[in-house]
């Protein structure tokens, strides 16, 4: 039994089921990120935790108390909305303390909480302003202040950074992470941005088409994605998914892929049990950073496989250089060090870190577990 | 030495614009002519009106006609002037405007922020009431008022105008609140505010512009209404009906100066409302249509 339990929860509108049997349990102080493309049901799930959406079946409980049918204000939660939802007619101070006022907290106590939160978020100087006079980042802080002041069991964030410009978004992301480190609060955070998910969370639930595709730590999600969707959704650039065939030589499984010239190349798997797939088609998943030049290869890896192939295009991005080649008649992206000497049209010696490779069943698109 | 060209966008069409403004000024003066005639003639003794030039300024300035119209003129059978009817109108208009505006605001709030099944149909039906001509409902309305015991009373008129006004006020407030993010209501719910608290503390304080629209619209419509007033007013008829009785009386001399004064008195409250709140009216009508 965790701190926040979502047990067997579904959501239907009439006959249409939009969330299917969701099971998530997190401990106190965890930072759970619900991530997925739009329409995957992540905001609906958050709304159900908040009490803004009904629960069609199953139970949601906080601290062991089932909260189905409990009014949002009595669940001891606080929410930060995408549009911030600051009350336009009230000052920042009134915005922050409105919830306390509604809960009948006496004025001196309200003022004290307000002072603490304002200091924490560095918005002391804005307390008398109206939301219309604030910048995007300041509004964001006020919205968080309004949630913090309630000292709730669970914080809910609904895409809180998506209205900010790129630079501010990165800054606020760090702020939120710092805040979580400091306050050790339990947070459920919805986003469609996989980088936010990776950087902020202690646990990620990747959602797609109303199903939880995978629930795990950022590392688990990144290194051992449950299926092709999770593999390609998480990470930027996306994981390369290459059609390949398993061949077994001297008891060792190899992935046979066709290079740019249509010649078969053999990459030895680290995952032994793939010998069972001898002669069958699979999907080979390799992260861009697992394909490098030989000098840039991971020294800790036990299985660096050389691969000679034609370079189609190079994209210098400052910190890295992205190199595109063709494998299994798909464009495959490799992530090189910035100063790698490589040009389009060149035939190049790549090094593939097969320790990091994963294999998927092409039928179900599920990962073949070791 | 070549002259610097003055041909900028500011200068082009200066003559055309002067011409247009002159034309508009002329139209405006023409439009104001009836008001001028009314004011000028209400300030003359009767002999000067009947014997002289309608457009001329008074030779003897007098407020007699105004006094007469207000307190002594013959209205129907009694020489009461317009005063009691003016009060009737006030007693009718103020509650009718307040009640219909409050109900409209609540309706708009529910129809946008507390949506329910078939709410668009409910709204459609309410809109439909805006298009029902007054004449159609006269007889059923008379029956209802009779059954309620409100026939011929000011509260009866208030009820009639409230019922008729709800369609319009609901339309105004619904469209205004539709542009208002629902997340605000969600946030307030999580903060622990209930139905009325959210309305009172969050929505109403930002409803200024649309409230002005609703109040002006309702005020002018109800104040200027003649048909309902004359049909259901009974002994407590509003201003419009009394003005008709004053002007249309078929006995005695036609006191044009008194009629003019009476007509101005009848129009004053609506004029006042427009002058005080007119610019908010336009602003409110435009609200939501243009992103600020």
From TrEMBL, chain A:
Family annotation (PANTHER family): ABC TRANSPORTER ATP-BINDING PROTEIN, MALTODEXTRIN IMPORT ATP-BINDING PROTEIN MSMX
GO molecular function, one term: ATP binding
Keyword Cell inner membrane listed: yes
Membrane topology: Peripheral membrane protein
Family: Belongs to the ABC transporter superfamily.
Lineage: superkingdom: Bacteria
Source lineage: Bacteria, Pseudomonadati, Pseudomonadota, Alphaproteobacteria, Hyphomicrobiales
SMART domains listed in its UniProt record: AAA
Compartment list: Cell inner membrane
ABC transporter domain segment(s): 4-234
Pfam families membership: ABC_tran, OB_MalK
Name listed for the protein in its UniProt record: Sn-glycerol-3-phosphate ABC transporter ATP-binding protein UgpC
Keyword field: ATP-binding, Cell inner membrane, Cell membrane, Membrane, Nucleotide-binding, Transport
Organism, scientific name: Rhizobium oryzicola
Gene3D superfamilies: 2.40.50.100, Nucleic acid-binding proteins (2.40.50.140), P-loop containing nucleotide triphosphate hydrolases (3.40.50.300)
From TrEMBL, chain B:
Entry-linked InterPro entries: MetI-like, MetI-like_sf
Domain of life: Bacteria
Coiled-coil segments: none
Residue ranges of domain ABC transmembrane type-1 in the record: 86-277
PROSITE patterns: ABC_TM1 (PS50928)
Compartmental location: Cell membrane
Family, per entry: Belongs to the binding-protein-dependent transport system permease family.
Name of protein: Carbohydrate ABC transporter permease
